[in-house]
């Protein structure tokens, strides 16, 4: 029970990495606020946690809206009385290069993937500061470190999240708040499968993608949830401002060429 008595908000917890983290955190004793724009999948995550004997509450939220982010924090405080962990996980993919991205796609990706983190951190900081403790986790990506041709807005947002994490960590360290970010390579979720599906040969895209990971497989949502659990727990109490790569060796190998 590494999160016993803690309250965690996880955005995008309706599926993929967010759902795996919600289930893992709840099993470790946290009460989890499941924030997702998709009510059906959020409810499913909530039901699974409750069936497992845990505590969870879904709050339907579009994280690209500053007002909805403020409402999420308010509702979480009303229901559970405090926020110990804010896991900024929700994001959308974007498969456009700089040369052709539309204004609408650029605005949408930056709003959902990056500005949401400003909105939520800003809204959560007063209560974390008052209790002189808190953990913020931001999901970035290795694309924020090495770039990703054809995913310009997505990779740019992820790079900015690394900088946001470092900056915020320094701004709030004296308030007892830790801030870290997680950079996965390819994780087998709906988001990744959609990017394979957008290629002429999805099976081949998947096989080529696996080859980029020296450990010989894609990551699982549970792999990332385990790292998030450690960073959220008191075992990581001396860790802040960090960028944690979880990539099966992919960044090191940099075998980013189609074969
Ligand atoms: N899957 C990968 O290969 C991979 C790799 C690196 C980083 N990541 C990052 O991990 C995080 C989770 O990715 P995933 O693969 O689990 O994604 P996913 O698409 O499987 O799940 C994303 C969840 O976020 C929700 N969501 C999307 N837009 C939202 C919005 N505006 N408001 C609220 N909720 C919203 C969706 O409904 C969904 O439940 C993202 O930040 C992603 O960029 C994923």
Please describe what this structure looks like.
49% of the residues lie in helices and 15% in strands. With 259 residues, the protein is α/β, with parallel strands linked by helices. The chain has a single domain, classed as Rossmann fold (3-Layer(aba) Sandwich), CATH 3.40.50.720. A seven-stranded parallel sheet has the order 3-2-1-4-5-6-7, sandwiched between helices. Strand 4, helix 4 (103-131) and strand 5 form a beta-alpha-beta unit. The relative contact order is 0.14. The mean pLDDT is 97. The structure holds nicotinamide-adenine-dinucleotide (NAD). The site of nicotinamide-adenine-dinucleotide has 29 residues, from helix 1 and helix 7. Nicotinamide-adenine-dinucleotide binds at residues 11-12, 14-18, 36-38, 41, 61-64, 89-92, 112, 139, 141, 184, 186-187, 189-192.
Ions, cofactors, ligands: which are bound? nicotinamide-adenine-dinucleotide
Structural class: alpha/beta
Distance from first to last alpha carbon? 45 Å
Largest sheet: 7 strands, parallel
Number of helices: 10
At the fourth level of CATH, the homologous superfamily is NAD(P)-binding Rossmann-like Domain
Domain module count? 1
Kindly state the number of beta strands.
7
CATH architecture: 3-Layer(aba) Sandwich
CATH topology, which one?
Rossmann fold
In the CATH scheme, the class would be Alpha Beta
Radius of gyration: 18 Å
Gross morphology is: globular
Uncertain runs are none
Could you give the order of the helices and strands? EHEHEHEHEHHEHHHEH
State the helicity in percent bands.
Answer: 40-55%
The order of strands across the largest sheet is 3-2-1-4-5-6-7
The proportion of residues in beta strands is 15-25%
Q: What is the residue-averaged pLDDT? A: 97
């Amino acid at each position: 029970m590494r999160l016993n008595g803690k309250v965690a908000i996880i955005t995008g917890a309706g599926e993929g990495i967010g759902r795996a983290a919600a289930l893992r955190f709840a099993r470790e004793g946290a009460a989890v606020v499941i924030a997702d724009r998709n009510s059906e999948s959020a409810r499913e995550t909530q039901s699974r946690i409750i069936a497992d004997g845990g505590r969870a509450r879904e709050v339907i939220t579009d994280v690209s809206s500053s007002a909805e982010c403020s409402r999420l924090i308010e509702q979480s405080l009303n229901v559970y009385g405090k926020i110990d962990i804010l896991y900024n996980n929700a994001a959308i993919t974007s498969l456009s290069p700089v040369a052709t991205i539309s204004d609408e796609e650029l605005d949408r990706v930056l709003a959902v993937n990056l500005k949401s983190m400003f909105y939520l951190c800003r809204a959560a900081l007063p209560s974390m500061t008052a209790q002189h403790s808190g953990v913020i986790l931001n999901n970035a990506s290795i694309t924020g470190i090495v770039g990703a041709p054809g995913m310009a807005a997505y990779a740019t947002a992820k790079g900015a999240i690394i900088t946001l994490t470092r900056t915020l960590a320094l701004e709030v360290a004296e308030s007892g708040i830790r801030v870290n970010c997680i950079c996965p390579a390819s994780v087998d979720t709906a988001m990744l499968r959609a990017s394979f599906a957008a290629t002429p040969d999805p099976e081949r895209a998947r096989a080529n993608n696996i080859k980029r990971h020296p450990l010989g497989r894609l990551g699982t949502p549970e792999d990332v949830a385990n790292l998030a659990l450690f960073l959220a727990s008191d075992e990581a109490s001396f860790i802040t401002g960090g960028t944690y790569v979880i990539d099966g060796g992919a960044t090191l190998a940099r075998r980013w060429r189609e074969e």
